[in-house]
Amino acid sequence: MKNFLVFIAILASNSFFACGFYPFGEEIRYSFLNPLNFNYYSYSEFNYSYNSFYPNGKGVYPQGTIDENESLWVKYCHNKVPVEAIRNVLYDFKEEDINEKSSNEMLLYFYKTKNTDAINYLKFAKICEFFNGIYDDPWERNQSATMPKRRNLIDKAIAISNKTKDKEIQLRYTFLAIRLAYYNSDFEEIKSLYDTVFKIQNKKNILNYWSLYFRTLAETDKALANFYAAQVFVNAPDKRFMISQRFDSTISLDAVLKYAKSNEERANVYFLAGIKKSDQALFYLEKVYQYNPQFEGLSFLLLREINKIEDWVFTPYYSLFNPAVSKYDYWSDEKNSIKDILNRVENDRVYAGKVLQFVNNVKLKKTNDPLLWKIGKFYLSFITKDNQSCLNEIALLEREIPKKDSLYNQIEIIKALALTANQEKGKAVILEKVKPILLQNQKNRKFIFAIGRELEYKENRTEAAFLYSKLNSVETTYSSVNDYEYNYVTWKSLKNKSNSYRDYFSDYFDYIDVSYSPEQVQKIVEEVENVKSNLDSFSKWKQSYIKSQIPRLYDLIGTKYIRQNKLKMAAEYFKKLDVDEFANYTDCLWEKPNCEGKDKYNSNPFFVLKYTPEFIKQEKLFKLNKRSITEHLILYLKKASNPKEQNKDYYYFLVANAYYNMTQNGNSWMMRRYDWHSYASDAPFEDEKEYYESNLAQKYYLLSLKNAKTDQFKALCLRMIGRCEKNKLEYQHPNDYNNRIENYDAFLWSKNKYYQDLKSKYSDDYENLMSDCSSFEEYFKARR
């Protein structure tokens, strides 16, 4: 069993990680109505989840609960034997342990009362264990061949059952015979034994439903098998997971229902059919309510339906991923644009409204769990964007639940979301009523992010960023497949253009790097810097992470201005960087000797080209960092644009080199990005084309060409202009899996007019410049 589950886990993992990690399943699912806060533990294997195909390794009974079989034994012993003693015999004893010398209270009771029927049954059951694998095979798989020994035990069990006068012991022997018959592949024996013994019972207990489980497996009529499966599912909690696999949803319910003799049995059929539905199941809710409104399964089915709707609505609404349990193709751009995903959200909100209408029409006193239905009512109101109705209902319900109850906090989370969403666009803030709820749940990443997302959608991107930053200070926890909450947050941007393995965020800085303007980042910094008095506890919590990030945000603002080519604004923010965190800008800023670059800035972008031997002599060294590079770029542009400057071609060439080096193909890409990839990134940066196409570099190489005095230097300029054009063409025509281009190099050359100009105008220099970049030095020196 354990090996089988490991195999499933590995198989599931490989399907998502074979080509690289991508968030999926419970990691992306949003749920604010935790089923563990309700009393439906025995149905926990069917809580709505991406991991719904896993059996519950923890069992279907809460710790300390007496199950149906144990309860039968307690009653059989006239309540004079503690359940612990019964469990000890049932689960721990071997046949030889059952004797008069035992100190076990159950055995002492039987020997004292001279109940030899019970003693002999327990011994016989222990002998059968080896042949039916009752504790080793909870999946009830038929893997054993027929065995003469098993046949002998079946016959003996039937014979003893027929002789004994003890009705309950008689039934237990019959059940053992049925079970042994299943493992002996004798399905006709199962049918005969069940139909002649258990089927005629008026009052059914767990032995009957255990036996019906095997009777279901033996049934060839699929409609009848479905009917039996539904009755077992409702009445035998420990068989629910296995029997649910036998329910064939393709069989007409009308064919199944013809076997039902009571409303309760009809409700059971609709209930299991609803459990098997991974999509909308309102019809089944209505039918179960019609036939058995007090059935606990009805309330569980409602809870499960709400958890479905949460996933369909909130997972895409907050994260922009498809639902965790999705019928959609993750990699189809045609069906999974952000617009398509959000359109489906609105359709699912409409369905939530239909479920809400059903809940509103239900008579709560008829249900077994009115509190759940009340919670469902206000939560569905929130899902349908009727925030005020949600808040009105919560105000009434808060008085009924103790504040220490985990369910109270669950309600407060929904209240905080509704309060935030209920604000006017452009005027939303973190409300005073929401602040203590955030502090109370500061380790709940998905809740924090959801509040932030609501604020972002309401155009308060500053407060949203503060909340997103708090995700970085919460410890990530990975849960087992049976745990409810995966405390992990990934999300996409509304600017996303396509689906790929790299189209999501998990860090606030990466997100604002792509999605925020420099002015929006400035507002974040200003809120921290403009504090004039002591902060309250919430504000301290909210700002604590970003407060330590201010130098990094200065750097980000400057970098964003570089992307916009606003060099003076960029330089102003690079000046603000903390001298302890970054390079000391006061030394060696301008052309002073003996200054070397630090950290990533180890190649001068004005004088050195990546993959090209040094060919421009640098007379004086200067410190390399974002500020110095930006200010030198401003200086060289100023010199180049001066009408009196005699070396305009020289300075335009240096400027072009710097802009080229700021692209993906350069040595100073970190002027525009915080990470480098060999492939074109899918992140929607505003300077995406510039970063890959080298357009600014091409512009200034062209100006250098325009001001060039010699043919050799003109040829070198054309060579560099052509290199920029090649980068542009590679970006516009990727030779990837979807766009395989034969003779790719020839294709690029045919499109590159600058390389063609170089060959036609400077044919004697073409081979030197194209085949050997070491010749660049010679051509640059020939500038004058």
Features:
single chain; 0% strand; mainly alpha; 784 residues; 56% helix; elongated
Explained architecture:
The chain is mainly α and 784 residues long. It has a domain at 585-781. 56% of the residues lie in helices and 0% in strands. It is built from 36 helices and no strands. Helix 5 packs parallel to helix 7, helix 16 packs antiparallel against helix 17 (370-383) and helix 19 (406-421) runs parallel beside helix 21. The longest helix has 24 residues, at 296-319. It is elongated. The termini are far apart.
Overall mean pLDDT stands at 89
Estimate the strand proportion. Answer: under 5%
**What count of helical segments does DSSP give?**
36
Uncertain stretches of 5 or more adjacent residues: 1-19, 134-145, 478-484, 580-598
Q: Which radius of gyration do the C-alpha atoms yield?
A: 36 Å
- Helical percentage: 55-70%
Structural class by secondary-structure content: mainly alpha
Write the layout of secondary structure elements.
Layout lengths: L1 H16 L50 H9 L6 H10 L12 H8 L3 H17 L15 H16 L3 H17 L3 H12 L7 H13 L3 H14 L4 H5 L8 H5 L5 H13 L6 H10 L4 H24 L18 H24 L8 H14 L3 H11 L8 H16 L13 H6 L4 H13 L3 H10 L37 H8 L2 H12 L7 H11 L2 H14 L3 H8 L51 H16 L6 H14 L26 H6 L1 H13 L3 H22 L11 H8 L1 H9 L1 H9 L4 H6 L3
